[in-house]
Amino acid sequence: MASKHLINSPSSLVNESLEGLCILNPELKLHRDARVLYRPVSSRQKVALICGGGAGHEPSHAGFVGKGLLTAAVSGNIFASPSGKQVKTAVELVHPAKGESQGSGTLIIVKNYTGDVLNFGLAREALSSQGLNPVRFLTVGDDVAVPRSRITLVGRRGLAGTVLLYKIAGALAAQGGALDEVESIGKYVSDNLATIGVATGHSHVPGTDRGKDVLAEDEIEVGMGIHNEPGVLRLRGKNGSPPPLSEVIPKLVDMLTVSEQDDNERGWVPFPSGSDVVLMVNNLGGLSPLELSAASLEATKVIQSRGLNMKRVLSGSYMTSLNMPGFSLTLLKLPKDTQEPSRGLLLSLIDAPAEASGWGWVSGQSPVSLSSQLTTSQSATTSSTTQSPENQNQEQAQKTIDAIRRACNALIRAEPELTRMDTVAGDGDCGLTLKAGAEGVLSLIDSKEITGLSLSAACVAIAGVAEDRMGGTSGGLYSIFFSALAQGLHQASFKWPQALLHALEKLYTYTRARPPSRTLVDPLDIFIVSLQAGGDVNGATKKAEEAAHATRGMVAKAGRAVYSGEGGEGEQGEMDPGAWGVAVLLRALVVGE
Protein backbone atom coordinates (compact mmCIF):
# COMPACT_ATOMS: atom_id res chain seq x y z
CA MET A 1 0.00 0.00 0.00
CA ALA A 2 1.47 3.34 -1.08
CA SER A 3 0.93 5.63 1.91
CA LYS A 4 3.05 8.68 1.06
CA HIS A 5 1.40 11.74 -0.52
CA LEU A 6 2.71 15.02 -1.90
CA ILE A 7 0.22 17.49 -0.44
CA ASN A 8 0.06 20.57 1.78
CA SER A 9 -2.47 19.19 4.22
CA PRO A 10 -5.19 16.52 4.19
CA SER A 11 -7.71 19.13 5.34
CA SER A 12 -7.03 21.48 2.43
CA LEU A 13 -6.49 18.89 -0.28
CA VAL A 14 -10.02 18.72 -1.73
CA ASN A 15 -10.43 22.48 -2.08
CA GLU A 16 -6.95 22.88 -3.57
CA SER A 17 -7.72 20.18 -6.10
CA LEU A 18 -10.92 21.96 -7.16
CA GLU A 19 -9.07 25.26 -7.43
CA GLY A 20 -6.47 23.51 -9.59
CA LEU A 21 -9.22 22.51 -12.02
CA CYS A 22 -10.21 26.17 -12.29
CA ILE A 23 -6.65 26.95 -13.35
CA LEU A 24 -6.95 24.36 -16.13
CA ASN A 25 -10.22 25.77 -17.46
CA PRO A 26 -10.80 29.52 -17.02
CA GLU A 27 -14.46 29.11 -18.05
CA LEU A 28 -15.25 27.23 -14.84
CA LYS A 29 -16.30 28.70 -11.53
CA LEU A 30 -15.96 27.31 -8.00
CA HIS A 31 -18.33 27.92 -5.11
CA ARG A 32 -15.66 27.27 -2.53
CA ASP A 33 -17.85 26.95 0.54
CA ALA A 34 -20.16 24.40 -1.09
CA ARG A 35 -17.35 22.75 -3.09
CA VAL A 36 -19.32 23.08 -6.30
CA LEU A 37 -17.36 23.30 -9.55
CA TYR A 38 -19.64 24.54 -12.32
CA ARG A 39 -19.92 26.34 -15.61
CA PRO A 40 -22.62 28.85 -16.46
CA VAL A 41 -25.40 27.28 -18.51
CA SER A 42 -25.59 28.62 -22.04
CA SER A 43 -28.93 29.91 -23.27
CA ARG A 44 -28.94 27.16 -25.91
CA GLN A 45 -28.62 24.29 -23.43
CA LYS A 46 -31.95 23.27 -21.99
CA VAL A 47 -30.72 20.76 -19.42
CA ALA A 48 -28.22 21.12 -16.62
CA LEU A 49 -26.41 17.94 -15.56
CA ILE A 50 -25.25 17.68 -11.96
CA CYS A 51 -23.29 14.87 -10.38
CA GLY A 52 -21.02 14.41 -7.42
CA GLY A 53 -19.90 12.31 -4.50
CA GLY A 54 -16.91 11.90 -2.28
CA ALA A 55 -13.51 13.12 -3.37
CA GLY A 56 -10.81 10.57 -4.11
CA HIS A 57 -12.26 9.34 -7.41
CA GLU A 58 -10.62 11.94 -9.64
CA PRO A 59 -11.12 12.85 -12.39
CA SER A 60 -14.64 11.94 -11.31
CA HIS A 61 -16.54 13.99 -10.73
CA ALA A 62 -15.29 17.54 -11.07
CA GLY A 63 -12.86 16.67 -13.86
CA PHE A 64 -15.83 16.10 -16.18
CA VAL A 65 -17.32 19.58 -15.78
CA GLY A 66 -17.05 21.44 -19.08
CA LYS A 67 -18.66 22.00 -22.46
CA GLY A 68 -20.20 18.84 -23.83
CA LEU A 69 -20.20 17.07 -20.49
CA LEU A 70 -21.33 18.04 -16.97
CA THR A 71 -22.68 21.38 -15.83
CA ALA A 72 -21.73 21.04 -12.17
CA ALA A 73 -20.11 18.62 -9.75
CA VAL A 74 -20.41 18.61 -5.98
CA SER A 75 -17.55 17.24 -3.89
CA GLY A 76 -17.59 15.82 -0.39
CA ASN A 77 -14.59 14.90 1.69
CA ILE A 78 -12.53 11.92 0.58
CA PHE A 79 -14.84 8.91 0.22
CA ALA A 80 -17.69 10.85 1.90
CA SER A 81 -20.88 12.13 0.31
CA PRO A 82 -21.50 15.88 0.04
CA SER A 83 -24.35 17.25 2.11
CA GLY A 84 -27.83 17.99 0.87
CA LYS A 85 -27.11 21.68 1.39
CA GLN A 86 -24.10 21.50 -0.95
CA VAL A 87 -26.18 19.77 -3.63
CA LYS A 88 -28.99 22.33 -3.26
CA THR A 89 -26.46 25.10 -3.84
CA ALA A 90 -25.24 23.37 -7.01
CA VAL A 91 -28.74 23.14 -8.45
CA GLU A 92 -29.45 26.78 -7.65
CA LEU A 93 -26.24 27.82 -9.43
CA VAL A 94 -26.99 26.12 -12.76
CA HIS A 95 -30.70 25.21 -12.86
CA PRO A 96 -32.38 26.79 -15.90
CA ALA A 97 -34.77 29.55 -14.93
CA LYS A 98 -38.47 28.70 -14.85
CA GLY A 99 -40.10 29.09 -18.22
CA GLU A 100 -36.76 29.75 -19.92
CA SER A 101 -37.44 27.12 -22.56
CA GLN A 102 -39.76 24.20 -23.01
CA GLY A 103 -38.26 20.91 -21.87
CA SER A 104 -35.61 22.52 -19.70
CA GLY A 105 -34.63 21.37 -16.24
CA THR A 106 -31.90 19.59 -14.27
CA LEU A 107 -30.88 15.94 -14.27
CA ILE A 108 -29.01 14.75 -11.19
CA ILE A 109 -26.87 11.66 -11.82
CA VAL A 110 -25.79 9.77 -8.72
CA LYS A 111 -23.75 6.62 -8.14
CA ASN A 112 -25.71 4.14 -6.07
CA TYR A 113 -24.16 4.63 -2.65
CA THR A 114 -26.39 5.22 0.35
CA GLY A 115 -24.93 8.59 1.35
CA ASP A 116 -24.98 9.97 -2.18
CA VAL A 117 -28.56 8.84 -2.84
CA LEU A 118 -29.82 10.26 0.47
CA ASN A 119 -28.12 13.65 0.27
CA PHE A 120 -28.71 14.30 -3.43
CA GLY A 121 -32.30 13.11 -2.95
CA LEU A 122 -32.74 15.43 0.04
CA ALA A 123 -31.71 18.40 -2.09
CA ARG A 124 -34.05 17.41 -4.88
CA GLU A 125 -37.02 17.16 -2.55
CA ALA A 126 -36.20 20.51 -0.97
CA LEU A 127 -36.12 22.12 -4.44
CA SER A 128 -39.21 20.41 -5.82
CA SER A 129 -41.49 22.46 -3.56
CA GLN A 130 -40.22 25.77 -5.00
CA GLY A 131 -42.04 25.63 -8.31
CA LEU A 132 -38.86 25.32 -10.35
CA ASN A 133 -38.41 23.57 -13.65
CA PRO A 134 -38.28 19.81 -13.10
CA VAL A 135 -35.33 18.33 -11.21
CA ARG A 136 -34.97 14.69 -12.26
CA PHE A 137 -32.96 12.03 -10.47
CA LEU A 138 -31.09 9.10 -12.03
CA THR A 139 -29.21 6.48 -9.97
CA VAL A 140 -26.49 4.36 -11.57
CA GLY A 141 -25.56 0.87 -10.35
CA ASP A 142 -23.25 -0.90 -12.80
CA ASP A 143 -21.34 -3.21 -10.45
CA VAL A 144 -21.60 -6.93 -11.27
CA ALA A 145 -19.29 -8.24 -8.55
CA VAL A 146 -21.59 -8.43 -5.55
CA PRO A 147 -24.23 -11.21 -5.84
CA ARG A 148 -27.94 -10.49 -5.65
CA SER A 149 -28.38 -12.29 -2.35
CA ARG A 150 -26.07 -9.80 -0.61
CA ILE A 151 -27.59 -6.59 -1.97
CA THR A 152 -31.33 -7.20 -1.69
CA LEU A 153 -31.91 -3.82 -0.04
CA VAL A 154 -29.17 -1.48 -1.28
CA GLY A 155 -28.80 -2.59 -4.91
CA ARG A 156 -25.72 -2.55 -7.12
CA ARG A 157 -22.90 -0.08 -6.53
CA GLY A 158 -22.16 2.71 -8.96
CA LEU A 159 -18.72 2.39 -10.57
CA ALA A 160 -16.78 3.71 -13.56
CA GLY A 161 -19.58 3.00 -16.03
CA THR A 162 -21.26 6.09 -14.58
CA VAL A 163 -18.79 8.19 -16.55
CA LEU A 164 -20.12 6.83 -19.85
CA LEU A 165 -23.53 8.05 -18.79
CA TYR A 166 -22.07 11.49 -17.98
CA LYS A 167 -20.56 11.68 -21.46
CA ILE A 168 -23.59 10.52 -23.41
CA ALA A 169 -26.15 12.57 -21.48
CA GLY A 170 -23.84 15.59 -21.36
CA ALA A 171 -23.26 15.58 -25.12
CA LEU A 172 -27.00 15.32 -25.78
CA ALA A 173 -27.74 18.18 -23.38
CA ALA A 174 -25.06 20.30 -25.07
CA GLN A 175 -26.79 19.71 -28.41
CA GLY A 176 -30.02 21.13 -26.97
CA GLY A 177 -31.75 17.91 -26.01
CA ALA A 178 -34.85 18.29 -23.86
CA LEU A 179 -35.04 16.95 -20.32
CA ASP A 180 -37.25 13.96 -21.18
CA GLU A 181 -34.89 12.93 -23.99
CA VAL A 182 -31.75 13.30 -21.88
CA GLU A 183 -33.30 11.38 -19.01
CA SER A 184 -34.54 8.62 -21.31
CA ILE A 185 -31.19 8.05 -22.98
CA GLY A 186 -29.52 8.19 -19.56
CA LYS A 187 -31.90 5.51 -18.30
CA TYR A 188 -31.02 3.26 -21.24
CA VAL A 189 -27.30 3.63 -20.58
CA SER A 190 -27.73 3.01 -16.86
CA ASP A 191 -29.72 -0.17 -17.49
CA ASN A 192 -27.15 -1.58 -19.92
CA LEU A 193 -23.88 -1.03 -18.05
CA ALA A 194 -21.75 -3.70 -16.40
CA THR A 195 -18.50 -3.04 -14.50
CA ILE A 196 -16.05 -5.24 -12.62
CA GLY A 197 -12.73 -4.26 -11.02
CA VAL A 198 -9.55 -5.98 -9.89
CA ALA A 199 -6.72 -4.71 -7.69
CA THR A 200 -3.49 -5.84 -6.08
CA GLY A 201 -4.15 -3.87 -2.91
CA HIS A 202 -6.05 -1.10 -1.15
CA SER A 203 -5.74 2.63 -1.63
CA HIS A 204 -4.60 4.90 1.15
CA VAL A 205 -6.49 7.99 2.36
CA PRO A 206 -4.21 10.98 3.06
CA GLY A 207 -4.04 11.82 6.75
CA THR A 208 -4.85 8.31 7.94
CA ASP A 209 -2.56 5.66 9.37
CA ARG A 210 -1.01 3.25 6.95
CA GLY A 211 -3.17 0.16 6.94
CA LYS A 212 -1.97 -3.39 6.76
CA ASP A 213 -1.63 -4.86 3.29
CA VAL A 214 -4.60 -7.16 2.86
CA LEU A 215 -3.23 -9.14 -0.07
CA ALA A 216 -0.12 -11.27 -0.41
CA GLU A 217 2.51 -10.48 -3.04
CA ASP A 218 1.08 -13.11 -5.40
CA GLU A 219 -2.57 -12.28 -4.72
CA ILE A 220 -5.17 -10.03 -6.38
CA GLU A 221 -8.74 -9.25 -5.43
CA VAL A 222 -11.70 -9.18 -7.82
CA GLY A 223 -14.66 -6.92 -7.13
CA MET A 224 -12.98 -4.61 -4.64
CA GLY A 225 -15.04 -1.43 -4.25
CA ILE A 226 -13.82 2.09 -4.95
CA HIS A 227 -13.94 2.88 -1.23
CA ASN A 228 -11.75 -0.09 -0.29
CA GLU A 229 -14.73 -2.39 0.23
CA PRO A 230 -13.63 -6.05 0.16
CA GLY A 231 -13.97 -7.91 -3.10
CA VAL A 232 -15.75 -11.15 -3.81
CA LEU A 233 -12.92 -13.32 -5.11
CA ARG A 234 -9.16 -13.64 -4.63
CA LEU A 235 -6.82 -15.13 -7.21
CA ARG A 236 -3.24 -16.24 -6.64
CA GLY A 237 -0.41 -16.51 -9.10
CA LYS A 238 2.67 -18.67 -9.19
CA ASN A 239 6.30 -18.17 -8.20
CA GLY A 240 5.47 -15.26 -5.92
CA SER A 241 3.89 -13.11 -8.64
CA PRO A 242 0.23 -12.21 -9.30
CA PRO A 243 -1.57 -14.20 -12.00
CA PRO A 244 -1.07 -12.92 -15.56
CA LEU A 245 -3.68 -10.88 -17.42
CA SER A 246 -4.36 -13.86 -19.66
CA GLU A 247 -5.78 -15.68 -16.62
CA VAL A 248 -7.43 -12.72 -14.88
CA ILE A 249 -9.32 -10.99 -17.68
CA PRO A 250 -11.29 -14.05 -18.90
CA LYS A 251 -12.68 -14.37 -15.36
CA LEU A 252 -13.63 -10.68 -15.34
CA VAL A 253 -15.32 -10.94 -18.73
CA ASP A 254 -17.21 -14.03 -17.53
CA MET A 255 -18.61 -12.00 -14.65
CA LEU A 256 -19.53 -9.12 -16.96
CA THR A 257 -21.30 -11.18 -19.61
CA VAL A 258 -22.79 -14.17 -17.77
CA SER A 259 -26.53 -14.58 -18.31
CA GLU A 260 -29.01 -14.64 -15.45
CA GLN A 261 -30.02 -18.16 -16.53
CA ASP A 262 -26.44 -19.36 -16.01
CA ASP A 263 -25.85 -17.38 -12.81
CA ASN A 264 -28.94 -16.12 -11.01
CA GLU A 265 -26.72 -14.26 -8.54
CA ARG A 266 -25.40 -12.03 -11.34
CA GLY A 267 -26.29 -11.88 -15.02
CA TRP A 268 -27.34 -8.26 -14.67
CA VAL A 269 -27.06 -7.30 -18.36
CA PRO A 270 -27.58 -9.86 -21.14
CA PHE A 271 -24.77 -9.86 -23.71
CA PRO A 272 -25.79 -12.44 -26.33
CA SER A 273 -23.27 -13.29 -29.02
CA GLY A 274 -23.32 -10.68 -31.76
CA SER A 275 -24.08 -7.80 -29.41
CA ASP A 276 -22.46 -4.44 -30.15
CA VAL A 277 -20.57 -3.10 -27.15
CA VAL A 278 -18.41 -0.24 -25.92
CA LEU A 279 -15.48 -1.15 -23.64
CA MET A 280 -14.06 1.19 -21.04
CA VAL A 281 -10.81 0.19 -19.32
CA ASN A 282 -10.48 2.36 -16.23
CA ASN A 283 -7.36 2.96 -14.14
CA LEU A 284 -8.28 2.74 -10.46
CA GLY A 285 -5.47 5.17 -9.69
CA GLY A 286 -2.25 3.29 -9.09
CA LEU A 287 -1.69 1.43 -12.35
CA SER A 288 0.94 2.58 -14.84
CA PRO A 289 -0.19 3.47 -18.37
CA LEU A 290 2.09 0.67 -19.55
CA GLU A 291 0.04 -1.91 -17.63
CA LEU A 292 -3.28 -0.28 -18.51
CA SER A 293 -2.61 -0.54 -22.25
CA ALA A 294 -1.71 -4.20 -21.87
CA ALA A 295 -4.96 -4.77 -19.97
CA SER A 296 -6.86 -2.97 -22.76
CA LEU A 297 -5.34 -5.29 -25.36
CA GLU A 298 -6.08 -8.44 -23.39
CA ALA A 299 -9.65 -7.34 -22.61
CA THR A 300 -10.33 -6.55 -26.26
CA LYS A 301 -9.06 -9.95 -27.37
CA VAL A 302 -11.13 -11.83 -24.79
CA ILE A 303 -14.33 -9.85 -25.42
CA GLN A 304 -14.07 -10.30 -29.18
CA SER A 305 -13.45 -14.02 -28.70
CA ARG A 306 -16.85 -14.19 -26.95
CA GLY A 307 -18.57 -13.07 -30.15
CA LEU A 308 -19.17 -9.45 -29.11
CA ASN A 309 -18.65 -6.62 -31.58
CA MET A 310 -16.40 -3.90 -30.22
CA LYS A 311 -17.57 -0.51 -31.47
CA ARG A 312 -15.39 1.65 -29.26
CA VAL A 313 -12.56 1.11 -26.77
CA LEU A 314 -11.84 3.79 -24.17
CA SER A 315 -8.88 3.55 -21.84
CA GLY A 316 -7.66 5.89 -19.12
CA SER A 317 -8.36 7.22 -15.65
CA TYR A 318 -12.08 7.91 -15.34
CA MET A 319 -13.10 6.93 -11.81
CA THR A 320 -10.26 6.13 -9.46
CA SER A 321 -9.97 5.06 -5.86
CA LEU A 322 -7.13 7.44 -4.98
CA ASN A 323 -4.00 5.35 -5.61
CA MET A 324 -5.53 1.87 -5.81
CA PRO A 325 -3.29 -0.40 -7.91
CA GLY A 326 -5.78 -1.94 -10.29
CA PHE A 327 -8.27 -1.41 -13.09
CA SER A 328 -11.91 -1.98 -13.93
CA LEU A 329 -13.65 -3.12 -17.10
CA THR A 330 -16.98 -1.64 -18.17
CA LEU A 331 -19.18 -2.91 -20.98
CA LEU A 332 -22.04 -0.87 -22.41
CA LYS A 333 -24.43 -2.89 -24.54
CA LEU A 334 -25.54 -0.82 -27.51
CA PRO A 335 -29.10 -0.97 -28.87
CA LYS A 336 -30.11 -3.26 -31.70
CA ASP A 337 -30.98 -1.77 -35.08
CA THR A 338 -34.67 -1.53 -34.24
CA GLN A 339 -34.25 -0.13 -30.73
CA GLU A 340 -34.38 3.39 -29.42
CA PRO A 341 -32.20 5.25 -28.73
CA SER A 342 -30.35 4.39 -31.90
CA ARG A 343 -26.91 2.82 -31.78
CA GLY A 344 -25.59 5.52 -34.11
CA LEU A 345 -26.81 8.26 -31.79
CA LEU A 346 -25.11 6.74 -28.74
CA LEU A 347 -21.82 6.35 -30.58
CA SER A 348 -21.98 9.90 -31.92
CA LEU A 349 -22.52 11.21 -28.39
CA ILE A 350 -19.51 9.25 -27.10
CA ASP A 351 -17.42 10.61 -29.99
CA ALA A 352 -18.60 14.22 -29.60
CA PRO A 353 -15.84 16.56 -28.38
CA ALA A 354 -15.88 17.63 -24.75
CA GLU A 355 -13.92 20.44 -23.13
CA ALA A 356 -13.32 18.85 -19.75
CA SER A 357 -9.92 18.09 -18.24
CA GLY A 358 -10.84 14.55 -17.25
CA TRP A 359 -12.12 13.42 -20.63
CA GLY A 360 -9.49 11.90 -22.89
CA TRP A 361 -9.24 11.36 -26.60
CA VAL A 362 -11.56 8.83 -28.28
CA SER A 363 -10.78 7.53 -31.75
CA GLY A 364 -14.35 7.61 -33.02
CA GLN A 365 -13.76 4.30 -34.81
CA SER A 366 -14.34 0.65 -34.11
CA PRO A 367 -11.17 -1.38 -33.45
CA VAL A 368 -9.77 -3.05 -36.55
CA SER A 369 -8.00 -6.37 -36.80
CA LEU A 370 -4.80 -6.00 -34.83
CA SER A 371 -2.89 -7.97 -37.45
CA SER A 372 -3.58 -5.19 -39.96
CA GLN A 373 -1.84 -2.69 -37.66
CA LEU A 374 1.26 -4.74 -36.90
CA THR A 375 4.31 -4.49 -39.10
CA THR A 376 7.54 -6.47 -38.97
CA SER A 377 11.00 -6.05 -40.38
CA GLN A 378 13.16 -8.77 -41.84
CA SER A 379 15.44 -10.35 -39.29
CA ALA A 380 19.04 -9.28 -39.41
CA THR A 381 20.01 -12.87 -38.76
CA THR A 382 19.58 -13.74 -42.43
CA SER A 383 21.57 -10.81 -43.78
CA SER A 384 25.03 -12.34 -43.35
CA THR A 385 24.59 -16.03 -43.88
CA THR A 386 27.31 -16.32 -46.49
CA GLN A 387 30.13 -18.48 -45.26
CA SER A 388 33.35 -16.50 -44.80
CA PRO A 389 37.01 -17.37 -44.25
CA GLU A 390 36.61 -17.48 -40.48
CA ASN A 391 34.15 -20.42 -40.67
CA GLN A 392 34.79 -23.07 -38.10
CA ASN A 393 34.57 -26.80 -38.39
CA GLN A 394 31.44 -28.44 -37.07
CA GLU A 395 32.99 -29.43 -33.73
CA GLN A 396 34.34 -25.94 -33.06
CA ALA A 397 31.03 -24.39 -34.08
CA GLN A 398 29.18 -26.57 -31.58
CA LYS A 399 31.61 -25.59 -28.82
CA THR A 400 30.93 -21.94 -29.62
CA ILE A 401 27.18 -22.50 -29.48
CA ASP A 402 27.53 -24.33 -26.16
CA ALA A 403 29.60 -21.47 -24.71
CA ILE A 404 27.02 -18.90 -25.80
CA ARG A 405 24.25 -21.00 -24.29
CA ARG A 406 26.17 -21.24 -20.99
CA ALA A 407 26.61 -17.48 -20.91
CA CYS A 408 22.91 -16.88 -21.57
CA ASN A 409 21.81 -19.30 -18.86
CA ALA A 410 24.26 -17.74 -16.42
CA LEU A 411 22.78 -14.28 -17.03
CA ILE A 412 19.26 -15.62 -16.57
CA ARG A 413 20.23 -17.25 -13.26
CA ALA A 414 21.89 -14.02 -12.14
CA GLU A 415 18.81 -11.87 -12.87
CA PRO A 416 17.46 -11.69 -9.28
CA GLU A 417 20.82 -10.61 -7.89
CA LEU A 418 21.40 -8.09 -10.70
CA THR A 419 17.92 -6.69 -10.19
CA ARG A 420 18.51 -6.37 -6.45
CA MET A 421 21.75 -4.48 -7.07
CA ASP A 422 20.11 -2.16 -9.57
CA THR A 423 17.13 -1.47 -7.32
CA VAL A 424 19.52 0.48 -5.08
CA ALA A 425 19.97 2.94 -7.96
CA GLY A 426 16.24 3.35 -8.39
CA ASP A 427 15.03 1.72 -11.60
CA GLY A 428 15.96 -1.93 -11.03
CA ASP A 429 15.83 -2.94 -14.70
CA CYS A 430 19.39 -4.16 -15.34
CA GLY A 431 18.76 -7.80 -14.45
CA LEU A 432 15.57 -7.98 -16.49
CA THR A 433 17.25 -6.27 -19.45
CA LEU A 434 20.12 -8.74 -19.54
CA LYS A 435 17.73 -11.63 -19.01
CA ALA A 436 15.62 -10.46 -21.97
CA GLY A 437 18.72 -10.35 -24.17
CA ALA A 438 19.86 -13.78 -23.01
CA GLU A 439 16.44 -15.29 -23.66
CA GLY A 440 16.46 -13.75 -27.13
CA VAL A 441 19.83 -15.31 -27.96
CA LEU A 442 18.65 -18.69 -26.64
CA SER A 443 15.66 -18.43 -28.95
CA LEU A 444 18.05 -17.91 -31.85
CA ILE A 445 19.97 -21.01 -30.84
CA ASP A 446 16.88 -23.14 -30.29
CA SER A 447 15.38 -22.09 -33.62
CA LYS A 448 18.65 -22.98 -35.40
CA GLU A 449 18.80 -19.45 -36.85
CA ILE A 450 22.50 -19.12 -36.12
CA THR A 451 23.43 -22.74 -36.77
CA GLY A 452 25.96 -22.84 -39.61
CA LEU A 453 26.58 -19.09 -39.57
CA SER A 454 30.08 -17.69 -39.51
CA LEU A 455 31.17 -16.16 -36.22
CA SER A 456 30.86 -12.65 -37.64
CA ALA A 457 27.34 -13.40 -38.87
CA ALA A 458 26.44 -14.84 -35.47
CA CYS A 459 27.71 -11.64 -33.84
CA VAL A 460 25.47 -9.61 -36.16
CA ALA A 461 22.52 -11.77 -35.12
CA ILE A 462 23.31 -11.31 -31.43
CA ALA A 463 23.62 -7.55 -31.98
CA GLY A 464 20.15 -7.56 -33.48
CA VAL A 465 18.75 -9.38 -30.46
CA ALA A 466 20.40 -6.90 -28.09
CA GLU A 467 18.85 -4.00 -29.97
CA ASP A 468 15.37 -5.55 -30.27
CA ARG A 469 14.98 -7.40 -26.99
CA MET A 470 17.02 -5.38 -24.50
CA GLY A 471 16.50 -1.77 -25.47
CA GLY A 472 17.73 1.16 -23.43
CA THR A 473 21.38 2.03 -22.86
CA SER A 474 22.49 -1.54 -22.19
CA GLY A 475 20.85 -2.81 -25.35
CA GLY A 476 22.51 -0.08 -27.39
CA LEU A 477 25.95 -0.74 -25.92
CA TYR A 478 25.76 -4.51 -26.37
CA SER A 479 24.41 -4.11 -29.90
CA ILE A 480 27.20 -1.72 -30.92
CA PHE A 481 29.84 -3.95 -29.36
CA PHE A 482 28.73 -7.13 -31.12
CA SER A 483 28.24 -5.34 -34.46
CA ALA A 484 31.77 -3.94 -34.16
CA LEU A 485 33.08 -7.36 -33.12
CA ALA A 486 31.68 -8.77 -36.37
CA GLN A 487 33.61 -6.11 -38.27
CA GLY A 488 36.74 -6.82 -36.25
CA LEU A 489 36.59 -10.55 -36.98
CA HIS A 490 36.64 -9.78 -40.69
CA GLN A 491 39.38 -7.17 -40.50
CA ALA A 492 41.61 -9.12 -38.09
CA SER A 493 41.28 -12.41 -39.97
CA PHE A 494 39.66 -14.10 -36.99
CA LYS A 495 42.22 -12.99 -34.38
CA TRP A 496 40.21 -12.52 -31.18
CA PRO A 497 42.41 -9.98 -29.30
CA GLN A 498 42.52 -7.59 -32.26
CA ALA A 499 38.81 -8.09 -33.04
CA LEU A 500 37.82 -7.41 -29.44
CA LEU A 501 40.02 -4.32 -29.27
CA HIS A 502 38.41 -3.03 -32.47
CA ALA A 503 34.96 -3.54 -30.90
CA LEU A 504 36.02 -1.74 -27.69
CA GLU A 505 37.43 1.22 -29.60
CA LYS A 506 34.26 1.45 -31.66
CA LEU A 507 32.19 1.33 -28.47
CA TYR A 508 34.23 4.21 -27.04
CA THR A 509 33.16 6.44 -29.94
CA TYR A 510 29.58 6.25 -28.60
CA THR A 511 30.10 6.41 -24.82
CA ARG A 512 32.25 8.66 -22.67
CA ALA A 513 32.61 6.01 -19.99
CA ARG A 514 36.21 4.99 -19.34
CA PRO A 515 37.49 2.85 -16.49
CA PRO A 516 37.18 3.32 -13.62
CA SER A 517 33.63 4.63 -14.15
CA ARG A 518 31.36 2.19 -12.30
CA THR A 519 29.87 0.90 -15.57
CA LEU A 520 30.08 -2.24 -17.67
CA VAL A 521 33.20 -0.92 -19.44
CA ASP A 522 35.30 -1.44 -16.28
CA PRO A 523 35.48 -5.26 -16.56
CA LEU A 524 35.14 -5.25 -20.34
CA ASP A 525 38.10 -2.94 -20.86
CA ILE A 526 40.49 -4.82 -18.54
CA PHE A 527 39.51 -8.15 -20.11
CA ILE A 528 40.26 -6.97 -23.65
CA VAL A 529 43.38 -5.00 -22.77
CA SER A 530 44.78 -8.03 -20.90
CA LEU A 531 44.25 -10.28 -23.94
CA GLN A 532 45.80 -7.68 -26.25
CA ALA A 533 48.87 -7.55 -23.99
CA GLY A 534 49.37 -11.29 -24.38
CA GLY A 535 47.61 -12.44 -21.24
CA ASP A 536 45.77 -15.75 -21.10
CA VAL A 537 42.00 -15.80 -21.21
CA ASN A 538 41.56 -17.19 -17.70
CA GLY A 539 43.72 -14.46 -16.24
CA ALA A 540 41.87 -11.81 -18.21
CA THR A 541 38.56 -13.17 -16.89
CA LYS A 542 39.84 -12.98 -13.31
CA LYS A 543 40.90 -9.36 -13.82
CA ALA A 544 37.44 -8.59 -15.22
CA GLU A 545 35.83 -10.02 -12.09
CA GLU A 546 38.18 -7.98 -9.90
CA ALA A 547 37.24 -4.84 -11.84
CA ALA A 548 33.55 -5.57 -11.28
CA HIS A 549 34.13 -6.07 -7.54
CA ALA A 550 36.07 -2.80 -7.47
CA THR A 551 32.93 -0.88 -8.42
CA ARG A 552 31.72 -1.33 -4.81
CA GLY A 553 31.66 2.08 -3.18
CA MET A 554 32.96 3.71 -6.37
CA VAL A 555 31.44 7.08 -7.27
CA ALA A 556 29.86 6.79 -10.70
CA LYS A 557 31.33 8.89 -13.50
CA ALA A 558 28.98 7.76 -16.27
CA GLY A 559 25.64 6.09 -16.70
CA ARG A 560 22.38 6.61 -14.81
CA ALA A 561 24.08 6.18 -11.43
CA VAL A 562 25.66 9.62 -11.89
CA TYR A 563 22.26 11.14 -11.13
CA SER A 564 21.65 9.22 -7.93
CA GLY A 565 23.30 12.02 -5.99
CA GLU A 566 25.33 12.05 -2.83
CA GLY A 567 24.86 8.82 -0.96
CA GLY A 568 23.78 7.09 -4.16
CA GLU A 569 24.33 3.54 -5.22
CA GLY A 570 28.12 3.76 -5.04
CA GLU A 571 27.86 4.63 -1.36
CA GLN A 572 25.66 1.62 -0.65
CA GLY A 573 28.43 -0.97 -0.98
CA GLU A 574 26.90 -2.67 -4.01
CA MET A 575 28.71 -3.58 -7.20
CA ASP A 576 27.52 -1.96 -10.38
CA PRO A 577 25.01 -4.46 -11.81
CA GLY A 578 26.06 -3.81 -15.41
CA ALA A 579 29.70 -4.47 -14.54
CA TRP A 580 28.83 -7.66 -12.67
CA GLY A 581 26.68 -8.79 -15.60
CA VAL A 582 29.73 -8.58 -17.88
CA ALA A 583 31.77 -10.56 -15.35
CA VAL A 584 29.10 -13.26 -15.15
CA LEU A 585 28.96 -13.48 -18.94
CA LEU A 586 32.74 -13.74 -19.35
CA ARG A 587 33.13 -16.38 -16.63
CA ALA A 588 30.44 -18.55 -18.23
CA LEU A 589 31.98 -18.16 -21.69
CA VAL A 590 35.55 -18.80 -20.66
CA VAL A 591 35.51 -20.86 -17.48
CA GLY A 592 32.19 -22.59 -18.00
CA GLU A 593 30.57 -21.53 -14.72
Q: Which radius of gyration do the C-alpha atoms yield?
A: 30 Å
Low-confidence region ranges: 379-391, 562-571
The number of distinct structural domains comes to 3
Strand count: 12
N-to-C SSE string, H for helix and E for strand: HEEEEHEHEHHEEEHEHEEHHHHHHHHH
Which second-level CATH architecture of the largest domain applies? Alpha Horseshoe
The CATH superfamily of the largest domain is DhaL domain
Separation of the first and last Cα atoms: 40 Å
Question: Main beta sheet: strand number and arrangement?
Answer: 6 strands, mixed
Q: What share of the residues does DSSP label as strand, in percent?
A: 5-15%
Helical content class: 40-55%
* Strand order across the largest sheet: 1-2-4-3-5-6
Query: What is the CATH topology classification name of the largest domain?
Result: Serine Threonine Protein Phosphatase 5, Tetratricopeptide repeat
Count of separate DSSP helical elements: 16
- Assign the structural class, choosing from mainly alpha, mainly beta, alpha/beta, alpha+beta, or little secondary structure: alpha/beta
Mean pLDDT: 88
Name the shape in a single word.
Answer: elongated
At the first level of CATH, the class of the largest domain is Mainly Alpha
